[in-house]
Amino acid sequence: MITRAKHHLRILSEFSIPLVIGVVAAVIWANVDPASHDALLEWSPFGHGNEVNFHFLVNDVFMAFFFGIATKEIVESVLPGGALNPPKKAVNPLLGTLGGVLGPIAVYLSWSFLRGDTTILHGWGIPTATDIALAWLAARMVFGKGHPAVAFLLLLAVADDALGLGIIAVFYPDPAHPVQPLWLLGVAGAMAATYGMNKAAVKNFWPYLIGPGVLSWYALDSAHLHPALALVAIIPFMPHEERDEGLFAEEHSTTVHTDALNRFEHTFKLPVDFGLFAFGIANAGVAFSSIGEATYGVFLALLLGKTFGIFSFAMIGDKLGFSLPAGMNARSLFVAGMVGGLGLTVALFVAGVAFTDPALQGAAKMGALGSAFIAPLAFIAGKLLNVKKLAEPRADDSVDAATATAATANG
Length: 411
What we know:
The structure is a single chain. By secondary structure, the protein is mostly helical. The protein has one domain (2-172, 226-410): Na+/H+ antiporter like domain (Na+/H+ antiporter like fold). It is built from 17 helices and no strands. The chain has helices at residues 2-14, 17-32, 34-42, 54-77, 87-115, 132-143, 148-171, 184-199, 205-222, 249-252, 260-283, 293-319, 330-339, 345-354, 358-370, 374-385, 401-410. α7 packs across α17 (401-410). The longest helix is centred in the first third of the chain and has 29 residues, at 87-115.
């Protein structure tokens, strides 16, 4: 019975069901009874009017663990056996990542100027990131479990989320509270403390979270930067394995990992996946009347900017000698670019900090929500282009077929 329950929990987690339910529930709630939905966001365990409310606890505290797990995957991807090791192996998907960031920015800004609406310009960062969980789910449905495009998309999603974190930190500070850069010394101190604890052979991850993690969070909050990024500075210096077994391998591996990074993910991956229900409730409650220029700008940037940005940059890399992964060709790359347009979690998060005007914020969030419709479009394109059939590996592929098979088996 316990094994069956764990299996069901894993299925719910893998297919991002809590996030999807939270998003759908929030949209319905905000349109049926917006007053009670707003009341939930303002609810605080410390009394009405306290800043530590439901919205704060979800976006500033809970999301620190979400970004922490994403950072863990980025850190491990540079280890031997990881998707970024050796460096040449990662050049093509990273070029695709660059295209998947610049393409949406270009489309979004073009839409703003074309429509003559400069009020939405500040939202250019909203469509730059891909939703890791939804991209992984859609990729498996479109390509099939063993296709190298799945690992390609996971690497791309993790990498452009890393760029997304940088965009949030640099370009989207709280406009009501100017940045206090002196507090960043506290973040530097937290990083130094983490490094010192690692050298002192502190293997349990809890001291890293309770000590440097809390310090980093407090310093970022005091600096008026987003404290949800607190663990991004800590994770790279925590003890880790010497090799990477693949993206999210700890979730399925039968190996017992004792390093701090894998134990951190093992402890928090399931709570974070289910906690995304609360994230959906807190961020996706947008009234349909909020549709505006920002809605179309975000949606078109994700659909067109991501698709053609990823496709063109990765193809350029391929022509320059940085080959696509074995088993991928132009057709599968094009569809992978479409799947990369699924921007939900980080897009909703950035929309919440890019605009202070509720109408603009709501309109931008509607565009992020609308990107969910890209999934069926990608599925149809995949069927028409027959992408489930692996392309024949070429002699000059930088990643041989055996390596690609091993990588996708782990992904």
